Amino acid sequence: MPVLEITASSPAQGALQQPYAGGQVARGGSVGLLGTRNVMDTPFSTVNFTSQLIEDQQARTAADTLINDASVRLTTGSNGFDDTFQIRGFAVPAGDVGFNGMYGLVSSNRVPSQLIERIELLKGPGALANGIAPGGSIGGGINIIAKRAGEEPLTRVTTTYLSDANFGLNLDASRRFGTNKEWGVRFNGLLRGGEASIDDGDVRSGFGSLAVDYRGERVRWSLDAIRQHDSTDNFRPQISLLSTIPSIPSPPDARSNWYPGTTLVQKDTTVASNIEFDVTEALTAYAGIGYRKGTNDQVFPVSGPAANALGTFTVRNSYYDSYNETVSGTAGLRWRFETGPVRHALNVGYSGFRRDEGNAYIQSAGTVVSNIYRPSALPVITAARTDPRKSAETTLTSFAVADTLSILDERVLLTLGVRDQTVKVDSFNTTTGALTSKYKASATTPLAGFVVKPLEHVSVYANYAEGLSRGTIVGAGYANTGAVLAPYKSKQYEAGVKVDWGSITTTAAVFQLSRPNSIRNAANELAYDGEQRNRGLELSAYGEILPGLRAMASASFLRPELTKTAVAAEQGNDAAGVPDKTFSASLDWDTPWVQGLSLNGRAIHTSGSYLTNANTLRFDGWTRFDVGARYSATVAGKPVVLRANVENLFDKDYWLTTGTYVTVGAPRTVVLSATVDF
Predict the structure, then answer these.
(1) Helix segments in 108-266, DSSP class H
(2) To pair with 187 at 20 to 30 A between CA atoms, which of 325, 511, 533, 565?
(3) pLDDT, tens digit, for every residue of 121-136?
């Protein structure tokens, strides 16, 4: 039986696809169980951002890069508790970001850019490709590919300044060893501190990562060790607005903190390893396992009653400390073979995830009246601060099989797959330790994807995908805090076309994605109510328009419709907190008159969204403009790059919202850096 050669369109799992024209995105990336795929051979909408883009835009976290795609929006601001995304109109929490193909191994708050070689974005449910996301997200998947030692030795030092007075120092060093440079070591370290985007705030960060890899003739192995410690005084606040207000209050100054005196300490430790072994030229076995422990200690004010139209609210102060401990793993086989004229890429895989988590919620005895424009001091907490105790234990396991059949020299590809998934969640009383609830649910979720290339550089695709999501563990601020909602299924239908014009790729996709709708009910409980069905159109283009002129542009048009609602008047309304139009566009230009000088600019627009499912009040839309420049030169024989960026150039104040829960976007922020390679 002849084997299917490993080609550029079907590389080994660990291989990185080459950058596309302009270098800002890659030609493809990993698609979980399906392995590494060229974008033109993938029956999904995917984008793969490169480290070049991350560096040139001076991103501090993965979130700063992901907003280059119009289908992705942040619902939290910089220097806040975490980076929470919205993809195709559905929430994707920071804890659902994967790391080298496994969930739960990077910080559940944010991923620092110093760790990242690639950011892989998959739009739509990724259950078959990646297994169940621990936080229950279905709008899309985000996977971080860690940096590895390159072919050439690297010793790079970068100093940064972030307005108003935050300074940082980053060391990035790597070497390869061995006769054929088979061993690689890369270290990344970051220290920074000082006031950033909040008045009287202090953001102190310490980050270190060590990556070791081996590239043998038939074996590829890697080990990542990561330590992250963030400590923030006066972090960016979030608040609830009353659902009954007659008008939405104006967003306050983005540098203000209506909860003065808050503190947040976040610590994460991760160790993860991946291995691949080519059993034969056609059969590859792989496995990965990782461990992470994370803690969050914070002063956590809660508004109740929430803010009214004048911005007035009543606040109770609290300590809300938490921990989570995760073990995550994957294993599988990839077999490439032919049956007559049909080529097969058969994939069989297992994924497992176990997480213990706990918290301690200590409230102040009293409350104070405050205002988002004129905040009062937080009430004193007199009760003793106690250690977090176990609140939940989650186990996610799944087995999957998928086969991609191709004919006519891969001009026609059909992917069929199925994943059997099991969700098990036990909840515990954090005071007594008693088991309070438990559930175990299993489901089989199918996937079908089709790619046809009527012309050499044109791909027409379609897919049907289902996802199973673990039920939400209700957080603080609800009457049913600590409860676990039931697991649920989501369904997606999608069709699109991709055209590679040589140095520019354009894409268009239509989709329908649905899942149960979450609401805050009259009893102040988080609950399901009917269904949210998002129908949308996505357009994008990226590449190099002219030599030295790089561009990315995308648009998303969404109808987030509520169906099967318990409240008849809300049937057919838009889901709260979901914008119906978003646009992202950027240019990066190497100027012809000054060698080494490049200019860049970016515009991000988000339309308004509704405060509640009743659709009586709507937030204003907003547009943010960013500009920047960089200069590359050789000084005393050393390569030097100077960068300057201004984000939110016109200092626009605007709400970021998921409905009644809101925060403000970051103010005008100046980012300066100097990089020297020794």
Answers:
(1) 127-130
(2) 325
(3) 999 877 667 788 888 7
